[in-house]
Amino acid sequence: MPVREHNSAHEAAEALPLVTDTAEVTAVEPVDRDRTAEVEERAALLLMDADHPDLVSDPEGDPAVDWDGVRRLLEESHGLRAAKLSTLAGRHDRSYPSLLRIRFTVDDPDFDFVPGQYLTVRFAGTPRPYSVASSPNDDEVELCIRRVPGGDLTTDLFEDLSVGDQLTVRGPNGEFVPNEPSERDVAMLATGTGVAPLHSMIRYAFEEGRDTVDGEERDYWLFLGAGWEDDLSYRDAFESLEAEHDNFHFVPTLSRETLLSGWKGETEYVQRTFVKYLDADAVDDDDLGRFAQYRQSEPAYDIDARIDPGNLEVYACGVTAMVNGITRTAKRIGVPGEHIDGEGFG
Hints:
Layout: E1 4-5, E2 18-30, H1 36-49, E3 56-57, E4 64-65, H2 67-74, H3 80-93, E5 99-105, E6 118-123, E7 126-131, E8 141-146, H4 154-160, E9 166-173, E10 185-191, H5 195-207, E11 212-213, E12 216-217, E13 220-226, H6 235-244, E14 248-254, H7 270-276, H8 285-288, E15 312-319, H9 320-332, E16 340-345
Parallel strand pairs: 1-16, 10-13, 10-15, 13-14, 15-16
Antiparallel strand pairs: 2-5, 2-9, 3-4, 5-8, 6-7, 6-9, 11-12
């Protein structure tokens, strides 16, 4: 199954039907946090342990790190400590905010979309496609957007967009949409803002009772991968849904968060985490190939359910490499190709 490239939609952005050129912005909300103080404190500890107190001022109070000095140090340093410092330097340099939730109203009473589809948004003269994160049942449309350094539109959205501004909206478009309800369970996998269309699909499924077929509940799984805890878009909503529904299982995995906090959840990449929750009786190690090693680790979450690939639909969205990997693995472990769908970007 060829993975759709979301970025290819740029070329067709202006060809989509006009929805409105007066969509009014009602909310612009950061998702992530400014964690500069946490990063400085952790980096200072690493530098002190490495006998580089010269790169830290006021280590007994609120430490300030000489990040230019750290970068020079990293040019000639290797090993685990250097890798940690490099990761922290990247987080220090990251602009805040780097994740936004944007909501707006559409003044067309006939406007509708299918969960998983995208809209093309124009602001300050630049159009870009973004997946819809809200449910079709919501009164407003919501997007979840990551800042792209040097990006034509995200720079304007993050620095200039305000409540009351107007957007031009075209669409909807896209074929990354859920199948009709069946007896199959559903596994959704996302990285970063790839969770936006999956949030729409999940919300709508539980609002409309699509999680139940002929009186039998279907298990819905969401594996959401990110670097940091504050990159988990819609975490509160997913945790609430999991508390309300025994058949929804939320599995966040964070590859970098242990550098800043006592994170006890999953830490592997999302495709590696997925295999830990497969039914051991339904999948052989030979079918998993290089991913077989990851099923030897105990899952971090106490979930009283497992995944049977023979009774599964798979939806993956996010970084193209992850989506390609998941779709290949899903086929290999027995998920029929017609029940695998993916959309990649970046």
